[in-house]
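Amino Acid Chain and Its Fold in Token Form
===========================================
What this section holds: a protein sequence and its matching fold, both as plain text.
Structure line: whole-number tokens from a learned vocabulary of local backbone shapes, matched to residues.
Purpose: to set a sequence beside its fold so the mapping can be learned.
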Amino acid sequence: MSTVGFIHMIFGIVALVAGTAVLFLRKGTRWHRTLGHLYLTNMLALNISALFIYRLYGSFGPFHWLALMSLLTLVAGMVPVFTRRPKGRWLELHASFINGSYVGLVAATAAEITSRIPGTEESFGLVVGGTSLLVMVIGGMLIQRFTPASVRRTPNRFHHAR
């Protein structure tokens, strides 16, 4: 494994741990914000480091596009926090995009793990695509099911800020 690959892996592990903790913490607390910042910075570093890994294709490939999409998802999840816009919906947008970012991270991790199972080399695209799709569908369903309740449980001072 290259140095960039190793650093990329460390950022991913920290983001997974921090993201999992944030998912289960009460929203709006100091711990939520602290671990959320840890998740955000590691996701930014993870995606930026992904843009420097060319071992698989030798040039800019599909995983680089996914890293850019992940960066956009992070930005889309954080802009509402900083602007408190759109009024009355910013918290739901933040939760939906950040949860989507986390599901993408879990999907990428699951795809990375399953693609390393001996005997899957010949069907790399199918294994990675199938694993990612399965995680994204289940994750999307969980986001739709639990995000509204999570937003409702967030302290009121965050709902109507500004």
Remarks:
- The longest helix spans residues 124-153.
- The chain has a mean pLDDT of 89.
- The chain has one domain: 3-159.
- Residues 3-159 form one domain.
